[in-house]
Specification:
The chain has two domains: 2-103; 110-161. The protein is built from five helices and five strands, in the order H-H-H-H-E-E-E-E-H-E. The chain has helices at residues 2-28, 32-36, 40-69, 75-103, 151-155; strands spanning 110-113, 119-125, 130-134, 147-150, 160-161. The chain has a five-stranded antiparallel β-sheet with strand order 4-3-2-1-5. Strand 2 (119-125) and strand 3 (130-134) form a beta hairpin. The chain is elongated and about 75 Å long.
Length: 162
Amino acid sequence: MELIIQSGGAIVVIGMIIKLIITVISVTKLTRFERIFMTEYKKITIFLTEVITAILIISTSVTLIYSVTEDNPRLEQIAAFFLVVFIVLSVCLTVMYKLITIFVKQSFRFFFIDENETKLYIHKMLTETEVIVSEDSNYNDHSKNFRIIKREDIYRKNIEQE
């Protein structure tokens, strides 16, 4: 019976890892331009999927190495080891990501020329159908000069990168 439970658990874990890998591969193929037309919710979901996939793969690998090199480890020991590695990696990767985003800034911007010959920068999606744009290339939450336009209005424009 224990073998059946372990096999079932292994199948579930392998299935989850395969699903996460497929999701990460499809998401990493998105260009920066395609990512600009995503809501914050989708961006966060993608980021979490990528991070959790990496953490699961590394944790599983380290746990497998531990279980092979240790003399007859109990299932509880293996589960506890996996949990500890997973938590430590989660904290480390989160801190590393925050440090990288502080020091490495992306310096590209997308813009288009509207019907009034005004250069409008595309900043982010507000909802699935609305986009925040402004004449100023630097946008933050305290900006006052911005517009909200329909996403479809941008599709007819020639979008360029700066």
